Amino acid sequence: MPIKPKIPRPTVKRLSLYLRHLESLAALDQPTISSKQLGAALSLTDAQVRKDLAYFGQFGHPGVGYRVDDLIGQLRKIFGTDKMWNAAIIGAGNIGRALLAYDRFGQKNFEIVAVFDNDPNVMGTVIENLKVKPMKDLAKLIREREVKLGIIAVPGEAAQDVADQLINAGVLGILNFAPVRLDVHDAVSVNSVDFSVALEQLAFQVSLGVVGSLDEDRTP
Amino acid sequence: MPIKPKIPRPTVKRLSLYLRHLESLAALDQPTISSKQLGAALSLTDAQVRKDLAYFGQFGHPGVGYRVDDLIGQLRKIFGTDKMWNAAIIGAGNIGRALLAYDRFGQKNFEIVAVFDNDPNVMGTVIENLKVKPMKDLAKLIREREVKLGIIAVPGEAAQDVADQLINAGVLGILNFAPVRLDVHDAVSVNSVDFSVALEQLAFQVSLGVVGSLDEDRTP
Q1: Are strands A130-133 and A126-127 parallel, antiparallel or unpaired?
Q2: CA-CA distance, A113 to A130, in Å (whole number)?
Q3: Which of helix, strand or coil describes residue B155?
Q4: How far is B137 from chain A (nearest CA, A)?
Q5: Average pLDDT over residues A83-112
Q6: Which of A26, A116, A129, B2 is 20 to 30 A from B22 via CA?
């Protein structure tokens, strides 16, 4: 599965910004973009853009720049978003329910195929057409449904145990909403969503007078 | 309020990473750090670190580097996190409730002082010691409680109207959980949390073989 283990983490983050910006350009039928334009849209230098895209062998055409559709296709393929990903949610509390109701996952080729919770008041109930399963079924269902991504939406004290179970069951990535740092021994990828960091980031923007959106390039 | 309007957005993001990493070093009683060490911890060059910190007049001491406590103090002051921020949540659905129960806000000097919802089944109920108020009270309460940050946790179709009301009431920043792009005419700062982007980012990490956490430096 690892294709380019040497790509630095900040580059991965920037590549995802490029992809989102390119997708918004494609929606406007813009055929090409220069590294300078792409950089300007994301407050990066054109040298940075060229360096990042060169990691996977993409080079602009002199006087033309990058072909938007080509670049999107290559980015999606390398990023694995050209195929469907099955995901499971662990924890059917407020965050789990919000995620189950979230209608943007399908647009991005993610499907939530299972939800787990050990709370007897929740187990067996149906949320957004999915029956909440007990944790004892986790390993079996993850394997059967070929779930590659696990979304942890349990309280902090339960999160590490859930992460261990997900890793043992064979998931490759964990999206973590619990307010703890997970120890995954570099066995899987982890992306954490920390609401207090998001709010802190906003306070920074306000204090520094950065108006408008920090991610200028979010697709509508 | 705007202090350094010329600081580029990616620099603001990196500054917050520096602060989090420095805070974790302070917890370990590390007294100093070089730009090279700080950069290595965050996959950045030392030149980038020096350039970022020079934006607000911070320069390392040759042979010593930066004093961790000094740098934290200066970053917190500039970022405004040395004082308390009052925030309000609009929308007492799943995300709003999850945020109200989130115990990390207080640690970072944020206090949720009000929650609003127009659903008659929710209005007037008490969640985490806060009574849910009707939207018609928003402007008055925001002014009275000196709320500077608004957190939008309403469905997409209601989000722009809520943003307009928040701006008119005088908030300075909006944390947006609704899956839409807000038009704020550069009147306020906006930070958006998009769960599908977080999941996409995770798929990228998996596809690219980036194991472990993308934000290596999250404080525990």
Answers
A1: antiparallel
A2: 8
A3: coil
A4: 23
A5: 92
A6: B2
Fold of B85-196: Rossmann fold (3.40.50)
- For residue B105, list chain A residues with Cβ-Cβ distance below 8 A: 195-196, 199
| pLDDT given at position B27 | 84
Beta strands in B101-218 (DSSP E): 110-116, 126-127, 130-133, 149-152, 173-176, 189-192, 212-213
The pTM is what?
0.81
Burial status of residue A83 (CB atoms within 10 A of its CB: 0-12, 13-18, 19 or more): exposed
Whether chain B has a CB inside 8 Å of the CB on A81: the answer is yes
Determine what percent of chain B is predicted with pLDDT higher than 70.
Answer: 93
* Chain B closest-CA separation from residue A32 CA (Å): 24
B64 to chain A, minimum CA–CA distance in Å?
Answer: 27
Q: Where are the domains of chain B?
A: 9-79, 85-196
Is the domain A9-77 a CATH 1.10.3210.10 member? no
What are the CA-CA distances from residue B136 to residues A6, B116, B118, B125 (Å)?
A: 54, 9, 9, 16
Q: What is the ipTM of this complex?
A: 0.82
Residue numbers in A near B200 (CB within 8 A): 16, 79, 81, 108, 110
Report CB contact under 8 Å: B205, A173: yes
pLDDT at A3: 43
* Residue B156's pLDDT band (cuts 50, 70, 90): very high
Whether the CB of B179 is below 8 Å from some CB of chain A: the reply is yes
Enumerate the residues of chain A whose CB falls inside 8 A of the CB of residue B81.
200, 203-204
Parallel, antiparallel, or unpaired: how do β-strands B130-133 and B126-127 relate? antiparallel
Is A80 close to B204, i.e. CB distance below 8 A? yes
CB contact under 8 A, B202 and A182: no
A209 in helix, strand or coil? coil
Between A169 and A78, whose confidence is greater? A169
Q: Which CATH architecture has domain B9-79?
A: Orthogonal Bundle (1.10)
